[in-house]
């Protein structure tokens, strides 16, 4: 089998499996998997910047929240219906990621991490500051009547699962397409050795800008969908924790692999889900996993798989 | 109260904030300066200092001053040892790679914070100050009989707050002497200037790193012990000192001790005064934006000079 | 006609004069060697030519157009190619992808593959195209670096110490390669190996303490007493 055939079979197989699972899963796990697919889409977006371009952002919650609030505030205060609100959320992601990229990409390395962290924190505080509209930490519920997309009720579990799967499939295939495209290959080269890429005649700033906007836009699409599918928008989705989560998922699943974000999100979600039954300090698990990954498996699950067995994995 | 007395009060409160902040930020700055790594768990070392201080004060009987005095010595020591252990088991093993260190210290942050939640619990608990005499401050007002001295209600401070300012200044002086006048300081500065050269001259760089990491954490813990009689101990209290230390270290110029102290005084004082006019949230928004913009446009800090 | 010229080009770092007032002219089609002792400022000069280093003073002209203000990537797009002194390949990517990255600046689709294979063949690395660049021997990485320059079909090829670390047989192949290219491609060659310089260069420029010490044919330079004192004597 050629690499292309194997790639299509593996990723197509995952999507088919996810489609089939909805008919057999018990209600609890059915709901979880819908949530995981939306969060994994967020991780797919994060992976484009971190895994493929090599830029470690600590501020992606800003993009996730831009999508979520771009969607929910237009519904709540401007009376948008779901479809245009979703678009508004995605547009907010484009604008916010473009603005942050233009600033943050003037720095590199540790400074880039701190700059993204600071601007995301400013965004979170801004949501709290305008509590009159956003209802701050408490957040607000998006009513069932407002969650009708082209006549489909997204609050209904089957529809919700299908919508989450559509989003995830779109993001997964987009990222697969991107890294096989010359633009994506250049991003990988920038991750490996930016100066060399520049001296081959590439405008590396423009490439990194593109990567950050694509990454931010996918994250915003995930944020907007999350709000729409689960009927809630709250400031906690803009907090530092939600910038750390995609980093954690991608590191666990394998940075710079197409499947990594999904695998990492799936594992981490159930790890936290199980431990929160035992203790309220469930973030302890996240901390331990972060440290262990940094120490022993910086390539993550899929990365180790690629290094040891399937060298062709994209 | 008039604006005048109010500003004096705000400056006094600001001076306490500045003193504690300077200690915490110097710890962060030392670690960044010598080891070239950013320690995201720094705020948790601060929190641990406060929680351990409560634990010591709580388990010791007698006059509150005894428990406090013991905490002042023991809490920074325990936290310092924890940090040295973290350095040896985690940071050393990722080779002090800047990005991996940040990720690892984020993990450390959650581990420390959540373990505290599991053992100490979610409550905020006070520690009694060793002494706490109220000191009123006079104000001059132009009244019917010309200028006269009045004692506005609420304008005052406590002997403890003044002691915090003094103690912090003393410790900072000690750190400065350590860095500039002792052999240990020389070794640290040599490691900071050129790690490979220091190795070549037989300086045990790994030991220096472990000790600097421990010292940085101990300074944060000491700051927390000083503040815990004013502000209660809570498992989430590390976030604000972390953010403020970042602001101070970045504005003061990464790794520069005098710049860090100057920035701490500036931020501490303005924090008190700004919060008179703005809501605390707005003040924080402005502060975080400032840090981001300084890093983008003046990476050498506001007071630093650019090296080409 | 001059393909490349510099006028009064200087660079100082913190008071240290790395390159001083260099006027340099390279006509189209010439193979020019740039030699000089270690620390003479060769890499700094070339860095200013291709835009990696900002000059303190002076101007750079390519095709008689002032390019001093252009960023590096735009200069490369005008037809310069630069190979690094310190091997700077993408070590975790296959050899072919390394060359393809260079090729994609001017080609698309299937033409990329053809050009990549051609360039790898020219340096004798065709059988190793699927290996990760980091797994190649040091000498092969140097050759890969050259292939990345060749595939750009540049009008000016700047090679920074290309033969450093190559085996004798590889150096012979390299000399043949330069002779093949000579005429079509203008080449600026920083080189320590005098044997390579003597056999490939049309003209030689000697740099010493950041200044041009001498310029002439390889034979003239070989006979130049000042050059021998500054450079050859120390080698």
Automatic annotation (TrEMBL), chain A:
Keywords: Cell membrane, Membrane, Transmembrane, Transmembrane helix
Membrane-topology descriptor: Multi-pass membrane protein
Subcellular location: Cell membrane
Record flagged with keyword Transmembrane: yes
Cellular component aspect of the GO annotation: plasma membrane
CDD domains reported for this sequence: TM_PBP1_LivM_like (cd06581)
Pfam families in UniProt: BPD_transp_2
Transmembrane segments: 7-28, 48-70, 82-104, 110-130, 161-179, 209-235, 247-272, 278-298
GO molecular function, one term: branched-chain amino acid transmembrane transporter activity
Name of the protein this chain belongs to: Leucine/isoleucine/valine transporter permease subunit
Record organism: Roseovarius litorisediminis
Automatic annotation (TrEMBL), chain B:
GO molecular function terms noted in the UniProt entry: transmembrane transporter activity
Gene Ontology biological process terms, A to Z: amino acid transport
Cellular component terms per the entry's GO annotation: plasma membrane
Pfam families reported in the protein's UniProt record: BPD_transp_2 (PF02653)
Transmembrane intervals: 6-30, 37-57, 63-86, 159-179, 208-230, 242-267, 273-297
InterPro entries: ABC_transp_permease (IPR001851), BCAA_transport_permease (IPR052157)
Chief localisation class: membrane
Membrane topology according to the record: Multi-pass membrane protein
Keywords, sorted A to Z: Amino-acid transport, Cell membrane, Membrane, Transmembrane, Transmembrane helix, Transport
Compartment(s) where it occurs, according to its Swiss-Prot or TrEMBL record: Cell membrane
Alphabetical list of PANTHER family matching this protein: AMINO ACID ABC TRANSPORTER PERMEASE PROTEIN, BRANCHED-CHAIN AMINO ACID TRANSPORT SYSTEM PERMEASE PROTEIN LIVH
Family under the similarity heading: Belongs to the binding-protein-dependent transport system permease family. LivHM subfamily.
Name recorded for this polypeptide: High-affinity branched-chain amino acid transport system permease protein LivH
Species for this entry: Roseovarius litorisediminis
Gene designation: livH_2
UniProtKB/TrEMBL annotation, chain C:
Lineage of producing organism: Bacteria, Pseudomonadati, Pseudomonadota, Alphaproteobacteria, Rhodobacterales
Classification via Gene3D superfamilies: P-loop containing nucleotide triphosphate hydrolases
Residue intervals of the ABC transporter domain: 4-234
Matches recorded under CDD domains: ABC_Mj1267_LivG_branched (cd03219)
One Gene Ontology cellular component: plasma membrane
Name of the protein: High-affinity branched-chain amino acid transport ATP-binding protein LivF
Keywords: ATP-binding, Nucleotide-binding, Transport
MF GO annotations: ATP binding; ATP hydrolysis activity
Keyword ATP-binding: yes
InterPro entries listed in its UniProt record: AAA+_ATPase, ABC_AA/LPS_Transport, ABC_transporter-like_ATP-bd, BCA_ABC_TP_C, P-loop_NTPase
Superkingdom of origin: Bacteria
């Amino acid at each position: 089998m050629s690499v292309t055939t194997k790639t299509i079979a593996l990723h197509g197989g995952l999507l088919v499996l996810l489609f089939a699972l909805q008919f057999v899963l018990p209600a609890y796990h059915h709901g979880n998997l819908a949530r995981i697919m939306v969060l994994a889409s967020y991780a797919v977006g994060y992976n484009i910047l971190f895994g493929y371009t090599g830029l470690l952002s600590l501020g992606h919650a800003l993009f996730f929240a831009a999508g979520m609030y771009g969607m929910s505030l237009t519904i709540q205060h401007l009376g948008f219906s779901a479809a245009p609100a979703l678009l508004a959320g995605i547009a907010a992601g484009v604008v916010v990621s473009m603005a942050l990229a233009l600033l943050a990409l003037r720095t590199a390395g540790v400074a880039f991490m701190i700059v993204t962290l600071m601007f995301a924190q400013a965004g979170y505080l801004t949501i709290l500051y305008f509590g009159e509209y956003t209802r701050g930490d408490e957040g607000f519920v998006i009513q069932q009547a407002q969650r009708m997309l082209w006549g489909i009720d997204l609050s209904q579990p089957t529809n919700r699962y299908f919508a989450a799967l559509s989003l995830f499939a779109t993001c997964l295939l987009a990222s697969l397409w991107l890294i096989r495209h010359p633009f994506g290959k250049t991003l990988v080269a920038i991750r490996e050795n930016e100066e060399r890429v520049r001296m081959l005649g590439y405008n590396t700033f423009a490439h990194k800008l593109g990567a950050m906007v694509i990454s931010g836009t996918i994250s915003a699409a995930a944020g907007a969908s999350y709000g729409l599918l689960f009927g809630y928008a709250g400031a906690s989705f803009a907090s530092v924790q939600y910038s750390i989560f995609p980093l954690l998922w991608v590191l666990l699943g394998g940075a710079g692999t197409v499947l990594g974000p999904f695998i990492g999100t799936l594992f981490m979600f159930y790890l936290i889900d199980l431990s929160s039954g035992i203790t309220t300090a469930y973030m302890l698990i996240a901390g331990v996993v972060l440290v262990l990954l940094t120490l022993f498996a910086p390539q993550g699950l899929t990365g180790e798989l690629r290094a040891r067995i399937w060298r062709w994995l994209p | 109260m008039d604006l005048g007395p109010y500003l004096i009060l705000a400056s006094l409160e600001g001076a306490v904030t500045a003193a504690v902040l300077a200690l915490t930020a110097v710890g962060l700055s030392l670690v960044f300066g010598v080891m070239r790594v950013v320690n995201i768990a720094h705020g948790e070392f601060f929190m641990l200092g406060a929680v351990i201080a409560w634990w010591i004060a709580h388990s010791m009987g007698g006059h509150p001053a005894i428990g406090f005095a013991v905490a002042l010595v023991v809490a920074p020591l325990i936290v310092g040892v924890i940090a040295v252990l973290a350095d040896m088991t985690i940071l050393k093993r990722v080779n002090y790679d800047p990005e991996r260190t940040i990720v690892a210290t984020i993990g450390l942050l959650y581990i420390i914070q959540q373990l505290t939640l599991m053992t100490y619990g979610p409550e905020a608990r006070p520690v009694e100050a060793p002494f706490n005499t109220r000191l009123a401050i006079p104000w001059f007002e132009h009244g019917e009989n010309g200028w006269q001295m009045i004692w506005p209600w609420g304008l005052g401070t406590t002997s403890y707050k003044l002691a915090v300012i003094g103690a912090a200044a003393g410790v900072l002086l000690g750190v400065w002497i350590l860095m500039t006048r002792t052999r240990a300081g020389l070794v640290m500065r040599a490691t900071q200037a050129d790690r490979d050269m220091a190795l070549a001259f037989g300086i045990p760089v790994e030991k220096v790193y472990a000790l600097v990491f421990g010292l940085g954490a101990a300074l944060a813990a000491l700051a927390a012990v000083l503040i815990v009689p004013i502000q209660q101990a809570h498992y989430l209290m590390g976030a604000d000192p972390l953010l403020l230390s970042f602001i101070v270290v970045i504005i003061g110029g990464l790794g520069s001790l005098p710049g860090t102290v100057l920035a701490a005084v500036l931020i501490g004082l303005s924090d008190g005064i700004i919060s008179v006019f703005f809501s605390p949230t707005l003040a924080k928004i402005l502060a975080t934006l400032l840090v981001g913009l300084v890093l983008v446009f003046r990476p050498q800090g506001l007071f630093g000079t650019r090296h080409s | 006609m001059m393909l490349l010229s510099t006028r009064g080009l200087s660079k100082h770092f913190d008071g240290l004069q790395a390159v001083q007032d260099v006027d340099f002219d390279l006509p189209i089609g010439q193979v020019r060697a740039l030699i000089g002792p270690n620390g003479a400022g060769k890499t700094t000069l070339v860095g200013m030519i291709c835009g990696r280093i900002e000059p303190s003073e002076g101007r750079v002209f390519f095709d008689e157009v002032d390019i001093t203000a252009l960023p590096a990537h735009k200069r490369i797009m005008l037809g310069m190619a630069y190979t690094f002194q310190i091997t700077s390949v993408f070590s975790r990517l296959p050899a072919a992808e390394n060359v393809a990255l260079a090729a994609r600046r001017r080609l698309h689709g299937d033409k990329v593959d053809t050009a990549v294979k051609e360039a790898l063949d020219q340096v004798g690395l065709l059988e190793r195209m699927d290996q990760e660049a980091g797994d190649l021997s040091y000498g092969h990485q140097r050759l890969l670096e050259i292939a990345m320059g060749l595939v750009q079909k540049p009008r000016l090829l700047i090679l920074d110490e290309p033969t450093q670390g190559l085996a004798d047989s590889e150096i012979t192949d390299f000399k043949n390669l330069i002779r093949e290219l000579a005429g079509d491609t203008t080449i600026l060659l920083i080189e320590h190996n005098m044997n390579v310089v003597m056999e490939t260069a049309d003209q030689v420029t000697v740099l010493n303490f950041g200044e041009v010490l001498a310029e002439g044919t390889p034979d003239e330079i070989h006979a130049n007493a000042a050059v021998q004192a500054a450079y050859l004597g120390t080698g």
